[in-house]
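Mods, move this if it's the wrong board.
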Amino acid sequence: MSGEVKDRQQQGTRASDDAFARVNLLGDSQAFREALRIIGRIAAVDVTVLIQGETGTGKELAARALHYLSRRRDCPFIPVNCGALPDTLIESEFFGHERGAFTDARQATRGLVAQAEGGTLFLDEVEAMTPRAQVVLLRFLQDHTYRPVGGRLVSSGNLRIVASSNVDLEEMVRNNQFRRDLLFRLGILSVIMPPLRERRHDVVLLAEHFLQRFAAQYERPAKSLHPDMIPWLLAHPWPGNVRELENLILREFVLADGETIMVPRVGKPAPTPMVDNDFEEQTYKSAKARAVAEFERYYLGHLLCKTRGNISLAARISQKDRSTLNKLVKKHGLDCERFRISPV
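Not the wrong board. Structure tokens:
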């Protein structure tokens, strides 16, 4: 591989990472990095994309990343919740209307398609579209032409459609609740955002990021996670995914009296394991020790990768004593030389 090609690839990787960071898509787990890799690959291909995943997994953030990584990045990104579109005015909402087109149409109005001209129209919760709305969208996707309500001229929309859903659209098709031909049009390329329970130690990384962000946003002293909080974070199933984590960290950040965030207060349901099947057979002490050890290995590996095995730099970043950090590295059998030669 020539140096010029390698430089272009590195520049592309940096641009992707910047775009992901810009919309707060953060994580190092294999499942999450694979989703980001797919987003980076398809961003340059100007076709319709379907983003799927559970509620709170970051589907709109993924759509924004697709937009910022595409050639349409300098044009509008228009998000719309399909469940809020009035069925009786669906054509007007999408394509706009001319003055006098219907009662109360006192002036011409641009629709969502015109507002997103040159950019991206993000259709969130596309499964909530009524049968009539599905027909209207399908017709537009066929050739990207439309006519405002009450208008005479046909216009052409230059934009990209990105849709998202948190349900199984194939199941909806089988139940005659969603058009199969529309699903084919929307799912030319697709991305699946993994749930937080499959991202394991990304939970700790995200929690620390939220703490830093809230401290800056609300101009309050920085706070950190209490050591007992980490096993709890790793064990909780996170049915609400990243959004649930963000809301919990914000609540605890505001309510915490000291400088550390403790395990959530009594009254919250006990977390169920998100780790190995034999987790429940362990004592609390052994389960906690195992979770902490796994976190330490993950954190140290990530830290050494970032610093290319430089213990002094790693100690400054982690704010740990150099000798203490070195003992932890040796405890977990990590070879600094390996990170200097070929960081993983």
